[in-house]
Amino acid sequence: MNGGASFIDVRGARVHNLRNVSLRIPHDRITALCGVSGSGKSSLAFDTLFAEGRRRYLESLPSRAAGALENLDRPDVDYIEGLAPAIAVAQGDSPPGPRAILATEADLFDPVRLLFAHLGTAHCPSCGRVVRAVSPGSLAERLLREPEGTRVMVLSPVFSRGGGAMGAGSTNENGEETARRAREAFDETARAGFVRVQIDGETLAIGDVSPERLESAREIHAVVDRIVVREGARARLVDSVELAMGRSGGEIRIVLWPPDGSTSRTVNESSRFHCPDCGISLPKLEPARFSFFSRSGACPKCEGIGTDASGRVCRACGGSRLRPEVAACRLPLPGEEAPGPNMPELLSMPASALVEWAKRAQSAFASDSAGAGSVAAALLPGLRLRLEFLEKAGVGYLAPWRPAATLSGGELRRVRLAAALGRRLGGVLYVLDEPSAGLHPSDALRLVPLLRELRDCGNTVIVVEHDESIIRAADNVVEFGPGAGRNGGKIVFEGTADRWAAERLGAARQTVPRQVAPRQTSSRRRPGGGRIVVRGARAHNLAGVEVEFPKGAFTVVTGVSGAGKTSLVRDVLGASLAAGRAVGCDAVKGAESIRRVVEAGRALRVRNPRSAVVSACGAYDALRSLFAATPLAKARGYGPSRFSFNTRGGRCEACKGEGRLRLGMSFLPDVVVPCEECGGRRFNRETLEVHWAGRSIADVFDLPVAEAAEVFAAVPRLARVFATLRDAGLGHLALGQETSTLSGGELQRLFLSAELARPGRGFGGVPPDATIYLLDEPGAGQHARDLANLLQVLLRLRDAGGTIVAVEHHPLAVAAADWVIDLGPGAGAAGGRVIAQGTPDDIRACPESKMAPFLADLLPSPSGPPSDFAARERRSFSMNDDNQRESGDNDPAR
Fold it and tell me: Is the pLDDT at 522 greater than 70, yes or no?
């Protein structure tokens, strides 16, 4: 706990590149940490404050955790006082698995499972009838509510041909065996003293039943009693029901004749969880059975994924992911005649509609003073609160049943943020990693009320952020810099958001020239290499749109979050190019020359824990060969593999070349500690004795990229790669730094710079002009200065002939594009249409575009009518399309 202190007092923080930083962070306030990537923001927020908060929590646990803490280093800081229990929401969290749905990511799944387990009504998956386990008393009470004068016949089943609900046996038994069972059941009924039986619906006296009638019987019931519903009949009715159910093992049949003389009706019931009509026994409804992560609940055919190996909907469960008997359970509301939705149906409603359902459910169950009312009162308010946070985060259009893997990066971040905020904790330190990353500027503004609500609950909120609107909404701003890596790690500003805007924002805008985009616009590339046209795109919420992607150009697909951008680029264009046919659309034209598709966003979602900057940029092979060519390495017979931390021989075997050990903590995240054997250097002593230019391989791993470009200036294969990384603004990264520690923006720049630095015809022998790069929000989580560096890399790839298509929200990236496709106008069902497509000038001039106001500061006011680039390109493509039709080329994609 914070011990009553009004602030978190940090003194002498030296984690990573922090330079003896000291500061005070006020409690119950929003503090924004800003600065260029690599300036030290995350080092303070996550690697100092959150790491120390977690360490102190683990220190309070019993012996097993305490033993692990003997090797767990404290953050390099003199002291921290006033630290509250900490929760981190990082954008680098693991990607969702194949079974994950939005409900699991948003903490909605567990309360919904509990609702169905405790309040749901089981239905037979075969006939659909309600299946209840009734008691004799409850059944008798129900019968007594029939109109007075109703005649009731109570029957106890004693025989059923083929077994089923009322007897043992098999459908494969012969006629003699069936007749024998019928005679035995009848004789036993007679010996028990019953005077009447019902055979196949006909009521007969025991003495009137012939042997021939028994041989043809399909069902035999003992007539236990015949009663008329009237005052004073309760005791007799309860006794009769108990007797009937007791003799048959829980089964009973009731025949009722209304007093008005209308047609009789028959009711089958059971004290077991069993369908009396179909003979199907159902399992007890338990929370685990409503989870497709559990064997007891998941469809055995698709194992809870909902699709088969080919990606088609699973026939066994129809995509419900659940076992049939579980999917058949429904959740009715008291007072409503409708049977209610099953779990997939309920969670397939948009979150905004589910809020209204939760309100109605709360009201309906509030009048129930029995157990159902108390269960609903415990679960529904929390469920409703989480749903409301999804609405406030701007993702209320999403259905909780939607697979999490189909969400865009911005949607997934907001869902996870809403889950953290929906827990409504107080007195907690929340550390948030760029919550606006991947959001349209108009959507980022919607996060401000969320953050303030979190603060107003009595929490301290620390936000690592680049977005100006989020920073301006903070109570306190701390800016790190002035540069990145060794050039950062200092506090260059500390004060209120108003002071920051007045003193630092103007300087930042001068550091990142606002004229970058206009200069690029004035010399904007006019692609002449043709176009890729997608027709009739309908994936997810796309409304049959037709869009065009110029070849050899930089295209940005923009629009509010949920407008259909990722669906268009990843699920239609990318999927069609990969499959060589139209996927999620009617046709794809003009893709014949594309031989290589690079999905940078998807490739970077799963970060290899053993990958380092030097290997990710493609320089590790050349570096290892360089060390293997030294005199000492040759004398000892060391080959290039000796200098790899991924193979035996040269690496430290105690940590398997990772430089650290991961200690498993049951029910808690793993704890990572430095390797004592190698001191975190990854290699064994013999390998470290080999030097090149006075440096061991571990020394080279410690070099920043900018310094490495100078050290290896005489080695062309390495100098070219390191210089490209440096020019892309990655000079502060250490060569041995794990890629799992990089931000999404740094990963994008690293990957694309490696592409740019590769000589010749590109990867796999495919020339750049036959390559298309599909990027998922490359500007997400990047400072404007870093984004400008990334844009330079993208434009150089474009100038080499590459076709670049990026899903993007940052106005600077939109302004730098050659071609823009703006989708909208809203999200979900309100989106999926093309608002405009053309140059950034065309988008700026479009009054319906939500991006237009944000481009106003970056692009000069148009001096004339909107660009005719779009019209010219469409005419050009139409002519090409006509020529294709004349030549009979109708292939959708190749």
Answer: no
